[in-house]
Write a structure and sequence with these properties.
The structure is a single chain. The protein is mostly helical and about 120 residues long. It contains 6 helices and 3 strands, in the order αβαββαααα. A 3-stranded parallel sheet has the order 1-2-3, with helices on both faces. Strand 1, helix 2 and strand 2 form a beta-alpha-beta unit.
Amino acid sequence: MSPGDAPALLAGYDAVVLPTWFPREGHPGVLVEAMMAGVPVVTTHHMAIPELVSDGVNGLLVTPRDADALARAIQRLAAYPDERFVMGAAHRSRLARHDAAEAAGKLLEMIEPERSREVVNRV
């Protein structure tokens, strides 16, 4: 497997489970790759993860180190394939929020509103 192959591999999955509690967790790459693949996730309400995953919208969030809650969340996605499909589609649509070009445009708008309008008008 080479870099960039993960989304295609994950697309064959029903869900991705990442029960992390790593003290310096940011935006785990596997969650972004799951977004690219349109696969819902079960992960923890920890650090920056809720910026990527909204509970019940594009995945399920559980309390870190709560094995029972993790098991219930996995069982929920297994029992309701329609909900899994809807969450996966929502996860895929959220990817645009994390697009580098879009983020750069928003940053430019905050820093130099006049210049950002010039750039947009040229495109």
